[in-house]
Design goal:
By secondary structure, chain A is of the alpha/beta class. Helix content of chain A is 37%, strand content 24%. Chain A is built from eight helices and 15 strands. In chain A, strands 2-1-4-5-6-7 form a six-stranded antiparallel sheet, with helices on one face. Chain B is built from eight helices and six strands. A four-stranded parallel sheet of chain B has the order 4-3-5-6. A two-stranded antiparallel sheet of chain B has the order 1-2. Chain B is elongated, with a radius of gyration of 21 Å. The chains are: A alpha/beta (384), B alpha/beta (198). The complex binds zinc ion (ZN). Zinc ion binds next to helix 4 of chain B.
């Protein structure tokens, strides 16, 4: 998949922008606060329907403008695809696919696919479980409309169920058992697909870790489910081999039964995919707690590279790789491995200068200068 | 310059309507002011009359001017089937299809804790009472295909289980005339599930 043309209207710092992307690798060079990350954010928005930096669309509208629109023309395996995401003067989200208005995000998500690697992703290993859930949810949502559907439905049911639990013991006769069933139906679909994804990601990620560390570091990635054990999240993992929906549903139901008094007391749902995590070990020790910062950074990079492999596997349309200011955060060895992947898929890189790339890429590289609200080609050519 | 008090009040009232933001309210208000007085009077009268004359049918809960409504008292309706819907507007939608000749039951919403709506806030007891006579052989649950509608359907299925009536869920998914090729995987999956026993 390639992004051919990006148009912005009153988006962030850009009044209007009409940019043709020429290179397999496109480098946006500019000072801090000049808007290079905004351009990357726009591409991310086209793939996922939302920003990776702010929760509300209104914040994406240029200062004093009433509305914004982002339009991307992509060449995918299926042909030309145009995606538009915006925010109307009436305060409504605008979603269009090939010029046709869409009501639901699920009609749009995954039409364009991206893998974003930003400095905050270096927190993937030691950050909160939520960061790792988002890592897995974002790739699966882009790859499968069914996954996105079940995930969104799960969260809706979760909100409803949490509210119901707050009424106390009467929750039971006010419909709690049917909310349980609904939670289980969507939850099982989410867990099942996550288990399968993690099993595959684990292989690519540990290859990458081995490569950077010269075979010194063995990374293992596993899914840690909140369904097993006696209440402690870390007490037991659902066996990775057990993705059978009936078994998962049974485990989920048993877990909810056991947690019933605690859930009613605390007024919240205590088990399910919203409390699951990825467990990362390096050389058989939990990386979050015992690994060095260098090892953790390598593992974060390894997980991101695995994401690209996963989305490309099985004849999938290769995603766009978005590297937001991360090259300067990585040392020589790690940067080298990342740049091997760059060039195999279309890539957009932002940075304060092009130096980290000098002499590193053997593909078409196009440089662009980003200054207050404009992006202009800075000369193109083959970088040797 | 601020609006005159009368105009400001009109905009205020319009803003209270669902789906109407301040901008739309302003546009509507200016439009109304541009019309002849008789037109605006006629609109206001229509709103008041509709509100005053419309009541809920005591049997099915549908909106009606007669009680019971014309569907509940109508000849030629199949009294062995009841279609359960969330809102009166769903009755209108189903009637327009001319495919269904049974009776209806309007719940008055769907179970939604976030909106403070539990099963006891819906017209479920009234439904159970209608089934007591034994005339009704099938209940078709046609609640919305979202989380709240699905949960309401499941709740009904459980509540009706002891009564020995057939409970089915309306098949949904593909729009009529929809092209299979363009239907996404979720919609297709749902359509394949079809109308099933609950
Ligand atoms: Zn009636």
């Amino acid at each position: 998949m390639r992004l051919k043309r990006l148009q912005l209207h009153d988006f962030r710092s850009f009044p209007t922008l009409d940019l043709t992307l020429n290179g397999q690798v496109n480098v946006f060079v500019g000072g801090n606060a000049e808007g290079k990350t905004n351009a990357l954010e726009a591409v991310y928005l086209l793939a996922t329907g939302r920003s990776h930096r702010v929760a509300h669309d209104r914040e994406l509208v240029r200062w004093e403008a009433p509305a914004y629109l982002v339009r991307g023309d992509f060449a995918s395996q299926a042909g030309a695809v145009q995606v538009e995401v915006g925010f109307s003067t009436e305060g409504r989200k605008v979603l269009r696919l090939n010029g046709v208005a869409k009501r639901r995000l699920s009609d749009l998500i995954g039409q364009a696919r991206v893998v974003l690697f930003a400095p905050e992703d270096l927190e993937l290993v030691k950050g909160a479980p939520e960061v790792r859930r988002r890592y897995i949810d974002l790739q699966l949502s882009q790859m499968s409309a069914a996954y996105y559907h079940h995930l969104a439905a799960y969260h809706r049911v979760l909100d409803q169920r949490n509210r119901l639990l707050k009424v106390g013991p009467q929750a039971e006769e006010r419909g709690l058992p049917v909310w349980d069933e609904k939670l289980i139906v969507h939850g099982v679909e989410v867990i099942r697909r996550r288990l399968e994804a993690v099993e595959r990601l684990a292989g690519w990620a540990s290859d990458a870790q081995r490569q950077v560390s010269g075979g010194q570091e063995e990374l293992s990635v596993s899914y840690q489910s909140s369904l097993g054990g006696d209440g402690q999240r870390s007490s037991r993992e659902v066996p990775e081999t057990d993705r059978d929906p009936d078994n998962l549903a049974r485990a989920f139901r048993r877990r909810l039964e056991r947690l019933r008094p605690a859930e009613i007391e605390r007024g919240m749902t205590l088990a399910g995919p919203h409390r699951d995590d990825l467990r990362l070990d390096i050389n058989r020790q939990e990386a979050r707690l015992f690994s060095s910062q260098g090892q953790q950074r390598t593992a974060a990079l390894a997980l991101k590279l695995a994401e690209v492999e996963f989305m490309t596997a099985d004849g999938g349309d290769p995603p766009l790789l978005l590297l937001d200011d991360v090259l300067s955060e990585l040392d020589e060895k790690r940067r080298g491995l990342l740049l091997e992947t760059v060039g195999r898929v279309q890539t957009i890189i932002t940075g304060t200068d092009g130096a980290p790339l000098a002499g590193r890429l053997a593909v078409d590289v196009a440089f662009y200068n980003v200054t207050r609200g404009t992006i202009t080609p800075a000369g193109e050519g083959r970088d040797r | 310059m601020p609006y005159s008090p009368a105009l400001a009040r009109l905009i205020d009232e319009l803003t209270k309507l669902p789906g109407i933001g301040p901008k739309t309210a302003q546009r509507l208000a200016f439009y109304l002011l541009s019309r002849p007085t008789e037109d605006v009077q006629s609109l206001a009268a229509a709103m008041v009359t509709a509100r005053e004359r419309t009541i809920h049918c005591r049997v099915c809960g549908n909106l009606s001017e007669a009680d019971p409504c014309s569907i509940c008292t109508g000849d030629g309706r199949d009294r062995s089937v009841i279609c359960v819907v969330e809102e009166a507007k769903d009755v209108q939608a189903l009637e327009r299809t001319r495919e269904f000749a049974g009776l209806y039951h309007v719940l008055g919403g769907a179970i939604s804790p976030l909106d403070g709506i539990g099963p006891e806030d819906l017209r479920i007891k009234e439904l159970l009472r209608r089934l007591e006579g034994g005339t009704v052989k099938e209940v078709i649950v046609a609640t919305d295909p979202n989380a709240e509608g699905e949960v309401t359907a499941m709740y009904l299925a459980r509540a009706l289980k002891p009564l020995n009536v057939r409970v089915t869920r309306l098949a949904r998914g593909l729009p009529v005339g929809g092209d299979l090729e363009y239907a996404d995987e979720v919609t297709l999956g749902k359509a394949l599930e079809g109308r099933r026993a609950l």
